[in-house]
Hints:
By secondary structure, the protein is mostly helical. 58% of the residues lie in helices and 0% in strands. The chain has a single domain (10-279), classed as 3'5'-cyclic nucleotide phosphodiesterase, catalytic domain (Catalytic domain of cyclic nucleotide phosphodiesterase 4b2b, Orthogonal Bundle), CATH 1.10.1300.
Amino acid sequence: MFHPVDTRFPAAVENEVDAICAAMFPAGDRGFVRRAFGWVTECFAGRFADYRPIDTGYHDFEHTMQGTLCLAQLLQGRHAARAAPVLTLDWFRLGLFAILFHDSGYLKHGDDREGTGAKYTPTHVDRSTVFAREFLSGHGIVDADIRAVQNMIRCTGINMDLAAIPFASEVERTVGFALGTADLIGQMAAPDYVEKLPVLYQEFAEAARFDATHLPPEFAFGSADALMRHTPAFWNEYVKPKIDVGFGGLHAFLRDPSPDGPNFYLQRIEDNIARLRRTLAMPPG
C-alpha cells in the first residue's frame, strides 16, 4: 500500500499525498492538496508577509515533508481499515494544513536577524498556532477550521497535556493524535536521523543561549554526544509510551499489509537506534 518516497524532494511528497487523497476520496475535489503545498513552500521560502526563509538545520522543510508523508499514509491506512470515527475529505484537508504548518513557528520575522529560528524551540508550537491563524485566515479558511488546525498543531508539543487541548469532536482529536504520531516517527525513521542528531543539538544549544529560563529540561544537553546517548532512552521512555498510549496506538494503521504486517516506520526507527548504539559503542538495550 505504501510507496517509498524521497522526502528530500517536496514535489515527490506532494504527488504521493495527492495520490493518497485521490485513493481515499475518488469523488472529492482534492485541489487543496496542491494549494496547501504551494502555500507552505512559499512560507518556508520567505515569500509570505514579512517572514524570513526557514533557517533551522534540523527542523527544516524536509522535516515537515517527513511528517506530512507519514500522516497521509497513516490516515490512508486508517481509512482502509474503516475505523471510527470516519474521516471525511474535509478532515483530511485540515490535517494536511496542520502538519504542513506545525513547525511554522520556527520562521523569523523580517527584522529578526539574530541567530536562527531554533532560538524559538521552547515557544515554537504556540508560535506555529499564531502563524497558522495569520496565514489561513487570509486565505478564506473559516474560524472553526482554523481552531481545529491549531488544536492539531498543539499535539506536537513535547510537554503538552493532551487532555487540556479543547478538541471540538472525536474526529478532530483523532486527526490531531495522528499528526502527533507522524511528527515523532516521521523524523525518527529518516535515513539520516542519526547523522542529524548533532544538528538537533545545535538547535537546542541555541535555544538555551537565547532563553535558558524557558527551555524544558528535555532539551538541556551539554554536548551533541550527550543528546545522542540519551536518544535510545528518548525512544523507549518517551516516544513509545506517547504513541502507544497518549496517541492511542494509531501507528498500527501503518502496518503493511494491514492488520498484521510490519510497520516500516517503527522498523526503521529501531534500526536507527541500533545503529546509533553501534556508533557510540553503547550496549544493546
